[in-house]
Design goal:
4-stranded antiparallel sheet, 7-stranded mixed sheet, mainly beta, globular
Length: about 120
């Protein structure tokens, strides 16, 4: 069974940092890219970042580039999202998902809440 479990969210002041984790199981981790998404109340879901576990290629949304860093620990089947210089507009429920190819995501985690206070 494919499972993705996020953790690491919380409440932080503006300018602070958090590291999110996405622990994957039930599939060959190296065969898939993993993406991070977020959704704030009343807003559409936004793609934040992604990483290919096989070759390490990464993608960042313009809104987080230079502040967030995605990484992958293939030995632990875990993808991390290091978030620095957090802003109130980063407040959202953050999800990770498995890329089935051509940026199609079928398996999602339950999400972890990030709240940035001003």
């Amino acid at each position: 069974e494919v499972q993705l479990v996020e953790s690491g969210g919380g409440l932080v002041q503006a300018g602070g940092s958090l590291r999110l984790s996405c622990a994957a199981s039930g599939f060959t981790f190296d065969d898939y890219a993993i993406g991070w998404f977020r959704q704030a109340p009343g807003k559409e879901r936004e793609g934040v970042s992604s990483i290919s576990s096989s070759d390490g290629n990464t993608y960042y949304a313009r809104s987080v580039k230079g502040r967030f860093t995605i990484s992958s620990d293939n030995a632990k089947n875990t993808v991390y999202l290091q978030m620095n210089s957090l802003k109130p507009e980063d407040t959202a429920l953050y999800y990770c998902a498995r890329d089935e190819g051509f940026c199609t995501y079928e398996y999602w985690g339950q999400g972890t809440q990030v709240t940035v206070s001003s």
